[in-house]
Batch of 4 targets.
Target 1
Amino acid sequence: MARLKRVLKRWPGIFALLWFTIVYSFGQAPIVVLGMIKQPSLTVQIILTIVGVLTLAIAAWFIWQYYQKWPPVKRYFSKPQHPVIFMVIMVAIVAVGQAIPTGTSDNQATLEQLMRNAPVGMTLMAVVGAPICEELLFRGIFFRRFLPTISSWQTGVIGILISALIFGSLHASLFSLTVIPYIAMGIAFAMTYLAFDDLRYDIGLHMLNNLIAAVTFFMSIH
C-alpha cells in the first residue's frame, strides 16, 4: 500500500513533464517557422532569430524554475574518481551510437532542411537551446520527480533506460532503427547526469554532440 501511494504521488510529475515539453516546443516555434520559409529576407531572419532566442531563453527559465523546486537525487554511489576518463567513455558511447548505420530519421531530415533555410537560428537552437532545455527535462526533472532516490544499481539502470527511451521517442520512432543513436545519446546523457549530479556535464556533452553534428552537416553541403 505504501508503495502504491508513492507511485500515485509521482503521477503529477508526468503532467509536469508533458507541460514543460510543450513549453519547450513553443520556445522553438519562431526559429522553426524561420526554417520553413524559403529564402527569407535578412530582416525576417534577424527578427525571427532574436525572437526565437528570447522565447527559448524564457522556456528554459520556466523549466529551470520548476527543476529547482525539487531536491537533488539521493544516490548510493559517489562521483567518478577519474571524471575525464568517465567523460571520454560517455563520448565513446555517443560516437558508437552515431556510427551504427541506421539511416536518417524523419526528425533528422527535417532538421537538416530547416538548417539549410535558417543556418544561424537553427544552429543556435540545436547547439545551445536544445541541449539546455532537453537536459533539464529528460534528465533533471525526470530523475528528480520520478527517481528521487537511487538506492541500487538496478534502479539506476531502469531510470537511465526509461529516460533514454523517452528522449529517443521524441527524436525518432521507437519501432525504427533510426532511434538507436538517440537512445545511445540518452543513455550517455543520463549516466553523466547521475554520475555528477550536475546538469552542466550532460548539457556540455549534449552541446558537443550537436556542435559536431552541425559542423559535419555544413561541411557536407559546401
Target 2
Amino acid sequence: MSLRKPKSETAKLRETVASLPPRVADWTPEQRRQFTTQSDRATREENGVSQPDERR
C-alpha cells in the first residue's frame, strides 16, 4: 500500500476550473463562489499563509 501525498490547493483549483463552463459569464453565483474560495486557498498555499486574513 502506498501513501499518497494530499492534493495541493493549486491542483484542486485546476480541477475546479476544468469543471466550470468555459465562459466566466456563464458561471452561476455558486460556481463563482466555488472558484473564488478555491482560488483564495491556492493563493494562500502558494504564499505560505495557512489561514485567511481575519483583520477585515
Target 3
Amino acid sequence: MSQNLTSTQPGTDAVIEKGRIPITPESYCPFLKFLAHVLGPTTEIVMHAINPASDGYDSSIIFLENSISGRTMDSPATDFIAKVLHDKLYQQQDYVVHYQSTLMNGKKVNSASFFIKNEAGELIGMICINTDVSRFQQLATLEKLSEELLQAFQPELSPAANPLAAATPTENLFIQPEGAIRQVVSELTGSPNPPIADLTRKEKIAIVRRLYEQHFFELKDAVAKTATYLNMSTVSIYKYLQIIKQEDQNMPYR
C-alpha cells in the first residue's frame, strides 16, 4: 500500500509532496548548524550559494560558523571554487576530501567540499569544511620524538616508519576579494607590500596572467577588482587578457 506523504516547513502553510522538495543551498542550513555544534570551534563550516552572472559566476557566503579563517559573510569565493567551476569538477564527482587550504596567516588546515547540484546537475552551492589540525600535529610531533627515542634505546620495539607526504595546498581562504590579487602580487614581486605605482607593464601582465591561470576572472567583478587594485582601467585589464590568450594560442605546448 502506497502513502502520499507530505511535509510542511515550520512557519509556512506550504505543503510539499515527498520527493518533490526543491534542492536549494538554504535547505542545508539547519543540518550545518547542528554539524558545527558537533564538530566544535576548531572546525569551520561555510556554505556558498553560486549563481551564473553576465560577467562570471557570483558566489556568496550564506552560512558561516566557527570562522577559524577570519572570513565573514561578505568574504569572496576562493581560488578552489574558481577551479571547480572552470574544470566542472562537480560533473565528475559529488565531493572532494582531504585537501589542504591556507589561511591568511599562513596556517594550513584540512579541508573537504561537497557540491550542491540542482536536478539538472548544475552547481548551485558548495559546503566547505575546514579543520584546524595543529593540535593533532603537535601530538604527532611528540609521537615522532618518542619513536626516535625508542629507536635509539630499544630499536627492536620501534614501529616501522610510515612517513606521510606533505600535501600541496589547493585552496586559499581570503577574507577580502583583494586577498587573491595581493597574494599573486606578493609572490611575483617577492615583496609583501610592493608599491603598486612602481609596477611595470610587464609585471602587471604577469600578475594578470597568474590570476587568469588560477581562473580568478571567472568570478563576478574580478576584472573590476583587479583594475582597482592595480590602479588601471577595466579596459586595460581586458587588453592584457587578450594578449595572454593570444600568447597561449601561439604557444599550444606552453
Target 4
Amino acid sequence: MGDFATDTEPYRRELLAHCYRMLGSVDDAEDVVQETYLRAWRSYEAFQGRSSVRTWLHRIATNACLSALSHRSRRFLPSGLGGPADDPMNPPMAAEVQWVQPIPIRCSTRQRSSRRATACGSR
C-alpha cells in the first residue's frame, strides 16, 4: 500500500457519479463522497488488500449513500399540482416535477479535463 491520497484520488469522480446515481442530487453526492473519503482514511491502515482499492471505496460509498438515504425524510409526490381537469375522462397530465437534480457538465464523468475535475471537487 502506498500513500492514501495517491491510492484513492483517481476514483473521486467515479465515486461522485456513483453517489449521484444513488442520491439524485449533486450536492448530496459531494457530501457523501467527502464522508466516504473520511471513512476510508480512518480505516486505511486496516485495509488488507483482499479487494482492490476501487472496490473497497465503492463499498464504503454505497454504505454511506444508503445511510444518507435512510436519514433523510421521504419525498412524497405532491397531489393536485394543477387545477381541475376540463374533461374528467382524459388521462391525467404528467406534472413537471423535478425529482432528480441534473448533474452539471463540469462534473460529468465523460469530461477528461483536469481543470474541470478540479472544479467538480477532484483536487
